[in-house]
Inverse folding.
């Protein structure tokens, strides 16, 4: 309490100082006794006030200390509970370990007993085998080495025969299962997908209001029709057929531009070289936009996203390209659906499969601008515009020209064959079709050593079976190249024709 006394003394000193200051200032103030009394009273009040403040501060600090103490006690109790719980868990774990150790010891004892029993049986077996070998040596009068060689030779023959039988059996089972699964997958995909199909030709007919328009289309000395054919790259046939003008071209895009341009010229009525060039340029711009819209629409329908703008344009051009009267863009969309369905049934990436199927024939949109077959052209274009290796390889190998490196290539080839071979998808003269197949087989039959020839897959493949005694493997490879060269020199055909030469020797035994 020294600091309390010091505070009180300081207050009293302050009051005394005030008192003497007032005395110094003059006698006008109160009397000495009154001043001293008032100073004492004021000092007592100050001392009491200070003592109350100090007591309140002490009580507050006491409460704070009690709270901290209670908190610390609660934390200690929590920690004590956790320790008790951990101790109980350790005790239980110790009991489990002791039980497992007991079980392990019991198991080890049993294993030791079994090992001893097994050793005893092994010794007994070795003793019996030794006795039997000695008896066999006495009976056969063979040495140990001779008997071992004869036994191993016999076992080798038996094992090889058994292994060959098992291999053939498993190969047959695998072949049957794989063919069944392939038929189910392809059949289910075709059943789930159904689309319309249309046949297209290389000729477009344009209706005219009267035959007088024909003269205006031809122009003076044929200048209008020459300007039109030069601007569009098509042939215009104006004959005696009433009310019709024919536009023909193998490029469907040029043919469509010509058809629309001629319709616009007929509606406008002003047909002269300058107007023809103006209308053709305008129609060409509209056709470019239409091609892009067709490509985007086809990609959306096939479920293929994030295509390069150039690839979209090329796919749009395929909407005006036909193969055996089958629209190539519709064919690509169909192949995309079939490839995606088969991939999903096999647990593969359906989006990637649809992308491979949709872009597999993109080379046909540029085969008149680049050299090579459409598979190689398509692969080059897809690689150039950033497509993945699976998509590039599917375009390159969808006609089985190369060994497939990805399963998506196999699925794309199967879907392409299904789309092309389904009834009504493609149209060709029956007589021409049969004659082409007969010509293919006749060319192959013209080579020596050929036993049988089959033209399959609509004339896309020729399977040649040769006599294995007269033609070996090297000669078979040369024969395939020679037949392919003869077909290329003598026949005109769409796409490519694959020649497969097969030679085999069959061995057969009959059990009686």
């Amino acid at each position: 309490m020294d600091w309390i006394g010091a505070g009180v003394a300081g207050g009293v000193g302050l009051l005394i100082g005030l008192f003497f200051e007032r005395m110094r200032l003059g006698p006008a103030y109160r009397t000495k006794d009154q001043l001293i009394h008032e100073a004492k009273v004021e000092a007592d009040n100050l001392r009491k006030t200070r003592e109350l403040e100090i007591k309140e501060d002490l009580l507050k600090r006491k409460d704070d200390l009690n709270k901290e103490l209670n908190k610390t006690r609660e934390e200690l109790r929590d920690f004590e509970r956790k320790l008790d719980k951990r101790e109980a868990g350790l005790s239980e774990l110790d009991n489990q370990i002791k039980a497992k150790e007991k079980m392990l010891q019991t198991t080890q004892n049993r294993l030791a007993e079994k090992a001893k029993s097994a050793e005893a049986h092994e010794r007994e077996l070795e003793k019996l085998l030794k006795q039997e070998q000695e008896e066999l040596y006495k009976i056969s009068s063979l040495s140990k080495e001779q008997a071992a060689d004869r036994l191993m030779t016999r076992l080798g023959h038996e094992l090889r025969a058994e292994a060959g039988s098992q291999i053939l059996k498993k190969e047959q089972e695998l072949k049957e299962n794989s063919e069944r699964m392939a038929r189910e997958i392809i059949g289910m995909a075709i059943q789930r997908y159904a689309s319309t199909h249309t046949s297209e030709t290389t000729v477009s007919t344009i209706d005219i209001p009267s035959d007088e328009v024909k003269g205006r289309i031809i122009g003076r000395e044929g200048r209008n029709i020459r300007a039109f054919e030069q601007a569009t790259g098509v042939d215009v046939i104006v004959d005696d057929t009433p009310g019709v003008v024919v536009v023909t071209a193998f490029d469907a895009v040029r043919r469509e531009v010509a058809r629309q341009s001629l319709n616009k010229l007929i509606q406008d009525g002003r047909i002269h070289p300058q107007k023809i060039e103006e209308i053709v340029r305008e129609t060409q711009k509209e056709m470019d936009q239409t091609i892009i819209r067709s490509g985007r629409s086809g990609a959306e329908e096939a479920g293929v996203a994030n295509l390069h703008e150039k690839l979209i344009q090329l796919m749009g051009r395929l909407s005006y390209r036909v193969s055996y009267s089958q629209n190539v863009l519709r064919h690509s969309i169909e192949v995309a659906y079939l490839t995606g369905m088969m991939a999903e049934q096999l647990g593969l990436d359906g989006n990637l499969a649809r992308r491979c199927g949709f872009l597999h024939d993109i080379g046909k949109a540029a085969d008149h601008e680049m050299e090579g077959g459409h598979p190689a052209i398509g692969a080059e274009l897809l690689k150039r515009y950033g497509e993945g290796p699976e998509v590039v390889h599917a375009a390159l190998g969808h006609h089985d020209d190369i060994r497939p490196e990805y399963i998506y290539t196999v699925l794309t080839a199967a879907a392409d064959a299904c789309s092309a071979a389904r009834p009504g998808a493609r149209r060709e003269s029956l007589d021409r079709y049969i004659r082409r197949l007969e010509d293919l087989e006749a060319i192959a039959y013209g080579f020596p050593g050929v036993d049988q020839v089959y033209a399959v897959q609509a004339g896309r493949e020729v399977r040649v079976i040769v006599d294995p005694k007269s033609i070996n493997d090297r000669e078979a490879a040369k024969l395939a190249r020679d037949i392919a060269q003869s077909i290329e020199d003598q026949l005109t055909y769409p796409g490519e024709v694959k020649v497969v030469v097969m030679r085999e020797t069959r061995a057969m035994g009959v059990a009686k």
User: Anything to note?
Assistant: The CA atoms of residues 86 and 92 lie 10 Å apart. The chain is about 70% helix and 5% strand. Confidence is low (pLDDT under 50) at residues 196-200, 423-429.
